[in-house]
Amino acid sequence: MGRAQGLKDAFARGVTLLGLDRLCFAAQKAMLRGKYIRVVNYHGTPARDAANFEAHCRLFAQRFVNATKDDLHALVRDGVWDKPRPGIIVTFDDGLRDNYDVAAPILEKYDLRGWFFVPAEFPDVPVPEQAAFATQRRLAALTPGTYADARVCMTWDELRDLVRRGHVVGSHTAGHARLRADLTREQVEREVVDSRHMMAERLGTPCETFCWVGGERESYSAQAAAAVERAGYALSFMTCSAPVVAGTHPLHIHRTNIESPWPLSLARVHLSGITDLYYRRKRKYVDALTRGLPSHA
Prior knowledge:
Helix 1 (about 5-15) packs across helix 10 (about 265-270), helix 3 (about 50-65) packs across helix 5 (about 95-110) and helix 8 packs parallel to helix 9 (about 220-230). The strands form 2 sheets. Strands 1, 2, 3, 4, 5 and 9 form a 6-stranded parallel β-sheet that branches. A 3-stranded parallel β-sheet has the order 6-7-8, with no helix packed on it. It folds into 2 domains: about 1-30; about 30-260, Alpha-Beta Barrel (TIM Barrel). It is built from 12 helices and 9 strands. By secondary structure, it is of the alpha/beta class. The model has no long low-confidence stretch (mean pLDDT about 95).
């Protein structure tokens, strides 16, 4: 464990020991009258983290209800939320094999469904080359020795199976590209527009969802945001931590990062709304940039 992660864990333990996470969660729930959806994102979910990830899912099921695409559209477009608790959407970036083997069955056990964002080129990379592809493109890596063979990514058959089981599969660009301002128009078209067609063709169903790569300020650009809209995606996800509420722009949906090995105390803090405050300035900058608005951040 790195020093930064250790400090985060210690902070979370203190917050939960004092009950501040419960207080903040209750305050946000009251302020929003329970009419919101929290979107979280993971990367890898190795078998060694299965019990911990299940604890996260148990917490999700206790505090939230699973939100579908229809639920999300109804909330942001019409302000409709008629569920007994706030909603939860659990997303996964990079298309890693252990999401299929480990995460999906656990989600289903708690009546949750995952949204899996996959670089469209990744499943077609020959198995012996997948680890190198993941390293070169800065994808999350599988834990060494997890599998006997070298396959890192889910297969198209597995992705189609997830769709049949009620999960969502979307584009995470073509080649896991950070959509910086210095990319050419052709590069952006490939990563954003072409990836949608690639996903739809291989899945046999329309690809309506897109997820940006990275999360650093420089990973976003006005040019790429215009391409996301032009491509015809119905929903687009970013990573600057905010609840989804009535009026949230469907192409500017922010997620709250959580990872499978994190202690439950840290997951509780991230679900409480505290992280939203930390990301406020960055979120304001990213939203302004990708909507073509002036920003002073």
